[in-house]
Design a protein that fits this description.
2 copies of one chain form a homodimer. In chain A, 27% of the residues lie in helices and 40% in strands. Chain A is built from 3 helices and 6 strands. Chain A is globular. In chain A, α1 packs antiparallel against α2. Chain A has a 6-stranded mixed beta sheet. The first copy, chain A, is an alpha+beta fold. Chains A and B meet through β2, α3, β3, β4 and β5 of A and β2, α3, β3, β4 and β5 of B.
């Protein structure tokens, strides 16, 4: 995998999180493959399958997210031909749920994002994010 | 994607769950790609990256799993050239944690398994399993 490939995948991954942060549904739609095989698993959700359903799910998530900011750590990019994976830790800063008390809530999830190389760049095929529940599975490296 | 491709991917996916059910670490190792880019996210864990670390993680998980049985539902297979994804719901029947009271505990997780076509078949590149926490994300179809 070339440095240029890795950089392009990292940029596509960044566009995904920027679209979410900005609550920009059009930008989010542009990140994804547009076919019936798109897979999106929001933390704690069942899978949402197909671009149309994924799009609707983001409309719901964004409508219920007044503020969110991601700091990504442990970003691991692998490019294998025309498919690429990004595994990362999503360190999340969000508006506190209790709206009567302005403030922030933090959280952490791990995410697997699989991209496909298409004409014009990389599109998101699979997004699977999940809450981190235990310390026992700390990254063991290799 | 051909029916033969889909069947071969389903068979590789079944081998993965059979290896776990049988606590067979050799069979589990044979399911996976053998390189440093293998990714395994057990439910609630941080990512484990690289075949050697993934192998060690299964040794730990199997040592702590006296009995487990999977009934897979909502199995969705997509083949795109030499890469394939399986999304499924893992309906789990396991030994109850309280060993003084023989019995079973049930549970549910959703899993994304990404396979690569290699000489001789399909190997598991990415396994990401996560607990289902809410009903709000019920499968919306497309």
């Amino acid at each position: 995998m070339t440095d240029a490939d890795v950089a392009a995948v990292e940029e596509a991954n960044a566009r995904f999180y920027a679209a979410f942060e900005h609550g920009d549904l059009d930008a989010m739609r542009a990140v994804w493959v547009a076919d019936s095989h798109a897979v999106c698993i929001h933390p704690g959700w069942n899978p949402v399958i197909g671009a149309a359903a994924v799009d609707r799910s983001w409309a719901v998530v964004m409508a219920n997210t007044p503020y969110i900011q991601f700091i990504l750590t442990d970003v691991e990019v692998t490019v294998r031909g025309d498919v690429a994976s990004v595994t990362c830790t999503e360190n999340v800063l969000a508006a506190a749920e209790d709206e009567s008390t302005p403030g922030f809530a933090g959280g952490k999830a791990v995410s697997t994002n699989v991209f496909l190389r298409v004409e014009g760049g990389w599109r998101l095929w699979i997004h699977h994010a999940s809450p981190v529940l235990s310390k026992s599975g700390a990254d063991e490296g290799d």
